[in-house]
From TrEMBL:
Chain spans, region Disordered: 805-853
Protein name, per record: Zn-finger domain-containing protein
Basic and acidic residues bias: start-end ranges: 824-839
InterPro entries tied to this protein: Plavaka (IPR041078)
Compositional bias of kind Low complexity: 808-823
Organism: Rhizophagus irregularis
Length: 853
């Protein structure tokens, strides 16, 4: 079976063209009723076609066929025994007033081939691709969906175009509603959403709106710009340290230990397809009265730098949520109902990957893949729901990764070898032995226990944004203000806010002109701005304003400890943002974490209600290093870009809805955007004015052999308008490269200083810092020579030096070999000899100034 444009066998489809009555899907999977008080409650049909009605037709409602045959009911009863065992408790204890629906998987849903060929290859086949009447129509629909235009604005644009356009064939739709109707009528198999009824509770159905996990993967891999960067092989990476020893390096997920274990568990000729899920509830409106719980999907095969972009994630589903009213919270079964709803929803989503391997059809052939669920991202509440552990920080074992007691959470000196990690087998034994409460575990079987190559307790990644930005740093700032209030009174807090408000404006820096105020309202980006400023704000406050009952020596000592705490934080935080970690780096990182944690606990624990027994603190101290070894650098499982997707896929679609059946309207808006993105792969965007771009060589231009340099330059100049600096770089590239080749046989770097005198009237033309004068970089390039193992990273510079006698400007072009403190470049493996970025070797073309920098 092929997952291509027309031959996809699926459980149901989404019919958008005629939003009148939903059709009963007789081929959908059957549902099993659950016995409640010895009464068999028949279940309604699990999946119906979503007829997402137009958001501008309020009088049209969805009607679902409730007729179920006796054969289907009997089938449901027979399959009940297979799924009753998900709960350990008796059903009479918790489930008295609602019906649980158990969707099962039919054999027709098993995937064998996933077609992710590019648009160009698909066009060569006989499959019909939906299209627009003309290019003007296409451009208008793109504009309509991109900016979420209202009917009034869109209709005015149509009227303006129809009145003044000159091309008789470029006819726009009669109104915006007609354009949306055309878009809704387009049937693209992998952009069809469906709904599954998960549970009935208190006479209300809880519905999962989703598409299959393979359809979501197809959306990502069909993007040529994403697929060309994907890696399907296990690629362990090693670097040589300063002692000449090879060290394991952890950067991408395909460099990590988890990938190696997954690869060893499958056939040698097959590949790993790593699936990453992110779930997090978010509010839809400003008042927070309405919320949705989207879940997004991305792939670990995509490198971190590409995966961090928004288009490398796709919306998989909107999870159902129970509105937690006061009446609901008083019920004994409220907790179990919430966890059941969450777990069963995820089971429906991940069920297709249990079927095993499939063929991935690409432009270059077939790739035999095994899908693995590798990482689950989110905040701690989501992780507790995924692992079915207690979320209260006051329980016996609040950590979802290990079984460390809560009393040890503020101990930074625990021997790592004594920490016992949770495993699926261990937790199953705990459940069978009746010790769930002792281990802070909900008395329910976890759906992730049976997934291959997945330890759900280690797959929940410690996210930097939720753990540090919105977690530990927020605590640090709050407790710092409490410390200042104790040592300096209210004057200390006022001085703190005044200093923060007086910081001058700087590009890219968030300012707090009114102090902090209510710290709970700040975003992660604002907390990151605080990190740049607060180390200077707290310096000297206690010395200046300490109370009389403290001596000057005590105040000076406390002030130093507080400043060191913020310095240690910044060092740890900056180090956590590295793209790669060697074994030595991990030891350094561990030391930085422990040094900060010691000061944090010692200095601020008196102001913590829990005496710093914080789950996020424990998780960061003892589990982040293991997470890097298992899954790669922290940058690979951060959630900043996922949070930004809430605006695109949740908040904006909700705001343009009429609030009636909002989820269906939101899903329809998302589907339109996905259709536009997909169709635009088959044709270039049209209707936009062609603007002349001025390139200043600020990105990668091309890869070429030196022998074809002239041909490349000639072609590039004909297609691009170059800035003067770019033209100068091309003119001086070959001469300065010749000078560099004269230097590559030097054994050592020689560092000297080039002194340039600057006149007062020219001072604005230069950038200086601490007496250093920076020249202008014309071009950055990487030169690979076959006789050397390492590539050379070069910078082509220009120095404009004025002769005081004849006032003639002498432009001296130089080429430098860059070696920076992160050891990104080098020659013959000799790393670390250079100083900061931009320092290295250079030689002037002028014989009078033969300096080596």
């Amino acid at each position: 079976m092929y997952l291509d444009e027309n031959n996809l066998t699926r459980e149901e489809s989404t019919n958008i063209s005629e939003p009148v009555v939903a059709r009963n899907n007789k081929q959908g999977p059957a549902l099993s009723p659950i016995l409640i008080n010895d009464i068999i409650t028949p279940c309604e049909e699990q999946i119906s076609d979503i007829n997402i009605h137009d958001a501008w037709k309020d009088d049209e409602l969805l009607i679902f066929d409730e007729n179920i045959s006796e054969k289907e009911i009997q089938s449901d009863i027979e399959s009940n025994d297979e799924i009753d065992n998900i709960f350990v408790e008796t059903e009479d204890q918790y489930y008295q007033n609602y019906t649980l629906l158990f969707p099962t998987v039919v054999s027709s849903s098993i995937l064998t081939v996933l077609d992710v060929r590019t648009a160009q290859k698909v066009q060569e086949t006989k499959y019909a691709i939906p299209s627009f009447p003309n290019s003007a129509y296409e451009a208008f629909v793109h504009l309509l969906t991109k900016h979420n235009l209202s009917d009034f604005v869109a209709n005015d644009i149509i009227s303006l175009f129809n009145n003044f356009h000159m091309d008789s064939t470029a006819i726009l739709p009669s109104n915006a509603k007609a354009a949306r109707k055309l878009l809704d009528s387009m049937q693209i198999p992998h952009i069809l959403y469906k709904k599954t009824v998960i549970m009935e509770y208190n006479q209300k159905q809880y519905i999962l709106y989703h598409r299959t996990i393979y359809d979501t993967i197809k959306e990502l891999l069909s993007n040529e710009d994403i697929f060309k960067h994907c890696v399907f092989d296990f690629m362990p990476k090693y670097l040589t340290n300063i002692n000449g020893e090879n060290e394991r390096c952890y950067g991408e997920q395909y460099n990590s230990e988890w990938w190696g274990q997954a690869q060893s568990s499958i056939s040698e000729n097959s590949k790993v397809l790593s699936i990453i899920l992110y779930s997090d509830a978010t509010t839809c409106d400003v008042l927070g009265k309405t919320s949705e719980h989207p879940i997004y999907l991305t792939l670990g095969n995509i490198p971190n730098w590409r995966r961090s972009k928004p288009d490398a994630k796709a919306l998989l589903a909107y999870l159902p949520r129970i509105k937690e009213t006061n009446e609901f919270k008083k019920r004994k079964d409220c907790s179990m109902v919430k966890h059941y709803l969450f777990q069963r929803s995820l089971e429906v989503l991940i069920e297709p990957i249990r079927s095993g391997s499939f063929d991935l059809r690409t432009d270059n052939g077939i790739i035999w893949c095994y899908p693995f669920l590798s990482e689950l991202l989110g905040d701690m509440p989501e992780h507790h729901s995924l692992t079915l552990t207690y979320s209260s920080p006051n329980c016996n074992m609040p950590c979802y990764t290990c079984i460390t007691l809560r009393d040890e959470f503020n101990n930074p000196l625990i021997d790592h070898s004594t920490i016992q990690l949770r495993t699926p087998i261990m937790m199953q034994n705990v459940l069978n032995n009746g010790d769930a409460t002792k281990y802070s575990l909900h008395n329910m079987k976890n759906i992730f226990w049976t997934l291959p190559q997945l330890n759900i307790y280690q797959a929940c990644m410690p996210d930097r944004m939720h753990h540090l930005d919105l977690g530990l740093y927020k605590y640090q700032v709050e407790y710092t203000r409490d410390l200042l209030a104790e040592w300096c009174g209210s004057d200390g807090v006022i001085e703190f806010d005044d200093r923060l408000a007086k910081i001058p404006r700087f590009s890219g820096l968030k300012l707090f002109k009114h102090g902090l105020g209510n710290i709970k309202r700040f975003t992660a980006e604002e907390f990151r701005s605080m990190m740049r400023q607060l180390v200077f704000v707290v310096d000297g406050i206690i010395i200046k304003l300490h109370k009389s009952n403290y001596t000057t020596h005590q105040a000076d000592n406390m002030d130093k400890q507080l400043v060191n705490l913020y310095v240690n934080w910044n060092q740890m935080y900056i180090f956590s943002r590295k793209d790669e970690f060697t074994e030595s780096d991990l030891e350094i990182f561990k030391t930085l974490i422990i040094n900060w944690a010691k000061g944090f606990i010692k200095l601020l624990s008196p102001y913590s209600p829990s005496q710093m027994q914080l789950p996020k603190l424990h998780n960061w101290m003892y589990h982040v290093i293991d997470a890097i070894k298992e899954h790669g650098a922290i940058n690979g499982f951060v959630t900043e870009t996922y949070e930004s997707l809430h605006k695109k896929w949740v908040k904006n679609p909700y705001r343009i809805s009429n609030r009636r059946d909002a989820t269906l309207q939101m899903l329809n808006t998302v589907r339109r955007q996905n259709i536009i993105n997909y169709l635009f792969q088959f044709s270039k965007p049209v209707g936009s004015n062609v603007k002349q771009n001025t390139s200043v060589m600020n990105g990668k231009i091309f890869t070429f052999e030196l022998s074809s340099f002239d041909k490349f330059v000639s072609s590039y100049r004909n297609t691009t308008t170059l800035a003067p600096e770019a033209l100068e770089a091309f003119n001086q590239f070959l001469p300065t490269l010749d000078k560099f080749f004269d230097l590559i046989n030097l054994a050592e770097f020689i560092t000297t200083h080039l002194i340039v005198s600057v006149k007062c009237n020219e001072i604005e033309d230069y950038t200086t810092y601490d007496g250093l004068c920076f020249g202008k970089v014309l071009m950055l390039c990487s030169v690979k020579i076959s006789s050397f193992n390492e590539a050379f990273y070069l910078a082509l510079n220009i120095y404009n030096i004025t002769d005081e006698q004849d006032n003639n400007s002498d432009s001296n072009n130089n080429v430098e070999e860059i070696q920076n403190e992160e050891n990104v470049g080098g020659r013959d493996g000799n790393r670390g000899r250079g100083q900061d970025r931009g320092q290295g070797r250079a030689r002037n073309s002028s014989s009078e100034r033969d300096n080596r920098e």
